[in-house]
Amino acid sequence: MQISLQGKRAFVCGATQGIGKAIAIQFAKSGASVTLCARNEKALKEVVNELDQSHHQEHSYLCADFSKPDELKKLVEAYTRNFPIVHILVNNTGGPNPGSIVQATSDEFLKAFQMHLMCNHILVQTFLPSMINSKYGRIINIISTSVKQPLPNLGVSNTIRAAVANWSKTLANEVAIYGITVNNILPGATNTQRLQQIIQQKALKNNVSPSIVEEEMKKEIPMKRFAQPEEPAYLATFLASPLAAYITGTNIPVDGGRTGCL
């Protein structure tokens, strides 16, 4: 089975580090032209230069801040004037800060809702017409296993991730008639800056070393290790391909078996 994304343009959010960067790299290796989206222009330029160009792709980037949805909307609308067709959209935004739900402020919920659900929605509304016209569309949301089983000390994240998952399922049902698929990847503990932040904060809170927290977290995973960013990226590449044309409306964990429910 050969996975090819040649002739496809992908728009990948959060693409300068972690899972987003790994997805962009895998998409490019599979032949896609990739547009990276993040807020750090220097990092965007560096990642663009890392992408495979052996299939004569045209890679690009869009510098945008997801804490400003109205500004994002203007930027992506301008982007479509240069790149009118986007076949693949990967919604991927760094998670809200850890913390209990009892202590979370209203502003934290509103900020997370804007950065995750509203920005996802703006991108979908912008790119969906081109997916329909080109008769090819793949929308992939990078969320969290918390949509199946809420995680401790991630109150705001658990809430917002669940909202995105239900938005995604509703969207999948509405656009399926066009052959467009919408799926959610649910990474478990993955070796990214986000995970290191969670480990550091938990270690500080419990007055223990980060290595102790890390080992305790690994004990909860049947495979006894963290995922590498490339592992959810491989799934994203498959879901973005023509081979996954009949898979839609799903939540797929990539968590080494940690989630305790089906």
Note down, in words, how this protein is organized.
This protein is an alpha/beta fold. The protein has 2 domains: 9-188 and 229-253, Rossmann fold, CATH 3.40.50.720; 189-226, no CATH class. It is built from 8 helices and 7 strands; from the N terminus they run βαβαβαβαβαβαααβ. The protein has helices at residues 18-29, 41-50, 69-82, 106-134, 155-175, 193-206, 210-219, 230-240, and strands spanning 9-13, 33-38, 60-63, 88-91, 138-142, 181-187, 251-254. The protein has a 7-stranded parallel sheet, with helices on both faces. Helix 2 (41-50) links the parallel strand 2 (33-38) and strand 3. Helix 6 (193-206) crosses helix 7 (210-219). The protein is globular, with a radius of gyration of 18 Å. The chain starts with 8 loop residues before the first strand and ends in an 8-residue tail after the last strand. The mean pLDDT is 96.
